[in-house]
Amino acid sequence: MSPLKTSLPAILFFAFTGAFAQIPSDEIIGQKSVVLSKPLLKNTADEMRAGAQTNFGAQVRRMLLDYYNTPRDSGDPLVEHYLQGFIEHCRAAATYKTGFAGHTWSVSYSLNADSLKTIITEFNSRYDFRAMHAYTLLLDAEKDHDDLALLRYAVQSLCLASAHIGEPLKNPGTSAILADDAKATLQKCLDKLSLTTSTLVISGACGVTRTNPIAVSAKIGDAPFAGCAVLATIPRVLKPFSVQADNQGVAWLPSFRIPYAAFRGTFLSIETNFGAMLDSGRGLVLTAGDLGIGASPTLVIFKTESPTFKLDYSLSAANTIPIPKDFLQGDAIRKFLRDTCTLGAGASPTQPADLTITVQCQLSSYTFDETEQTVLKTEALITITENRADGKSLQRSMVVDQKGYDYRSDAPIGAFLWESMGKLKQIVRGMLYEM
């Protein structure tokens, strides 16, 4: 007998059994207050309202963790996608209040236990119904040996079942967890899925826009995967972008700048974006790894020459602070750029450096009698410029490090600067990734 002979009302009753074994008895409240010395301005009210919404969302997450074992900050994009939708439902149903208590203005969102129970029922009902419908279509596609449809409905039933709050949604025919059944089917589909590229190597100079398009051919078995959402990214460097394949299963990657991190083993990672298969998944990026499926991405290796650089470095003191000479020349930054960032040091009058990196640092010291502390602070202005006519320039100004020490003893300037240089290196590398 087919596991889906059970009527949908019975399925939903099965899914909800035990959903409210525990329910918080107190209100969920998110609030924010500000003490005013002048009339309330619109931007202040907007800021407080946004803060109250954030705090309300944090309380909803805490409730889900405490009562339903749902992670608050899992880092899982699928969980976060549905969790944000649930929080929005809660906030829309919450009671919104503002008011003064003396000079303090407060804004709050509150939701009682009965309203929360209703929202959970409606939320689960909506997604459970859609998950079971997708699983019905999955079984039909399996009977018809339609691999494309099978992949699509396996993704949809897995994702929609993952939205359920409380005990996992069960397959009423087998009593197994529905998401696990869908995941097993999806794994079989991915064993047949292939992404091949028109090139295995990307050549060119860092910072130059690649104009030769890269074709990605998507297939399931021998059949073209029409409409496949192809996801391309350079880990830690290039923000993921998704391109849809045509009716022949071919997607063309758009032009992009070869980043300054594209050397010594850097690669372009290409995989399927399963988030595009969800009706509510606009802009949602979901890889096989995000769905808990084992699948290796297709890799295209960069073959570029290490760009050369010129470092202009300075460190000065805002007041009479003795700076150890080891930190005056920027040798640590220069070595980091050569050894870790693999930039090529050296430029000649006839061949200027590809990049000019300017790092201007200032060390300052302040004494606070109230806290009996001497505070050391390192600030920096960093500029990275491409030395060509159409070159890009990037600049950052920031406090690199700040730390307090007992003012009755000498502050360890050398140790503090060592820590500051370590943080400064990571800031410079992050800026290189943005170039």
What is shown here, in short?
The chain has four domains: 28-111; 124-190, no CATH class; 194-303, Immunoglobulin-like (Sandwich), CATH 2.60.40; 308-434, 2-Layer Sandwich (Double Stranded RNA Binding Domain). It is 33% helix and 29% strand.
What's the layout of helices and strands?
Blueprint (H helix, E strand, L loop, with lengths): L7 H9 L11 E8 L6 H27 L8 H17 L1 E7 L2 E8 L1 H32 L2 H16 L15 H13 L2 E5 L3 E3 L5 E2 L3 E7 L2 E2 L4 E6 L3 E7 L5 E4 L2 E2 L9 E6 L25 E6 L4 E10 L13 H9 L4 E2 L9 E14 L4 E14 L6 E14 L6 H22 L1
Parallel strand pairs: 5-14, 15-16, 15-17
Antiparallel strand pairs: 1-3, 2-3, 4-7, 6-12, 7-8, 7-11, 9-10, 9-13, 13-14, 17-18, 18-19
Describe this structure in words.
This protein has a five-stranded mixed beta sheet, with no helix packed on it. Helix content is 33%, strand content 29%. α4 (113-144) runs antiparallel to α5 (147-162) and α5 packs antiparallel against α6 (178-190). The chain has 435 residues and is an alpha+beta fold. The chain is flat. The longest helix has 32 residues, at 113-144.
